[in-house]
Amino acid sequence: MSDKNPRDKAHESSEQSEPFEEIDFTSSPSVQKAFKKTRMKQTFKYVFIAFLTTVIVITAVIFGSQAILNNKINEHQQNSLKETVYGANVHSSETYYIHDMFSVTEETKYRKQLGDRYIIWDKKMKRIPLIGSIETVSQGSGMTGINRMDKEAKRTVRYNDFNNEREIEFYYPDVSYSPIPNELDIALGLDNDKLIEVAVSFKQPMTLEQLSKQLGYKNVNWLWVDTTSHSKKEEINKLKVASVKTKWGEDAFGFDVSGASPYTTETGQVFLSNMEDLSNSNSTIKKALNTIRENTKTSNGELLISGAVLTGTPEELERLKGLEFIRASVLGATIDKY
Which keywords does this chain's UniProt record carry (predicted)? Predict the structure, then answer.
C-alpha cells in the first residue's frame, strides 16, 4: 500500500509531464560579443602569419636570387679577364650593373689608346639571367663586322660600326698573300696633327729580346702573339679569299706594353703566367696557350712575337719606314691630336 497521498501523486505527475526548457547561452549579447572578438583576433592572427610568411618568402627570394646573380657576375668577371690577353690595343674602361630581381644588365665601355689620347671603341650590353646563359643584348660596333672592298687599298677593309674607324688586322708570317698591304706610307702622308694607329706584321716571329733591339719600344702599344697552329695555317693557306686569311685585331692574343719603357723577357713571362691562370677556367685560352707552347719549342721556350701595334703622329712613326723585318702594315684608327 502506498504512503503518498493523492495530492502528492498529482503534483509528481504534473512535473513529469512538463517539458525541460534548455537555456541558450550563445544568444546572449555578451557571449556574441566575446565570439566576435575571438574571431577577429584569429583573423588578425591569420593575416599577420600570412603577411609575415609572404615577407619572409619574398625576402628569401630576393636575397637568394641576388646571391646567385652575384656569383654569376663574379664568374663572368673572371672570364672577362680574358680581355687582358686578348684584343689588339683594346681595353675595357668602365662597367655598370643594373640589377633586377631575376637578372642583371651589364654595360661595358671599351677604348683604344692613340698616342696620349683615348677614344671610345665599343659598348657592349649583356644580360646575366638568374637561370640560363649570359647573352649579348647589344654591341656598339655591331654584332657582325662590316667589310668593304677598298679599291685604293686593294683589299677588304673592316670598319667599326660604332665610330666608323678602320679596324686593324695582322698577316701571318708563314701564309702567302697577294697583295700584301703597305699602308705605312699612307699613315706617314697624313697631317702631323693626326694621331694614327698602325698594325705591323713581321716576316718572322721574334723573341722579345730580338724585337726590343730591332723595333725598340717608343710608340709601341701592343704586341701580337700568334696562337694559330701550323696545321690550321696550312688550311688557311689554301683559302682563296684573302680577307679570311688574316688575323683580325679583335681576335688576336697579345699584351699591352708601354711606349715609355722597354719590354723584356720578363714581360713575356708575365703574359704567359696570366694565360696559365686564365686557362683553368677558359677553354679558348687553354687551347691558345697549348699552341704558344708548341710554337716556342723552336725558341728554347721564349715567347715569340709576330706583330705589333704602334700609335703616334706621322713624324713619330717615321722611324718604321724601311725596317726590313716588317712584312705588312695596316692603317687603323686616326683622330685629331688637338
Answer: Membrane, Transmembrane, Transmembrane helix
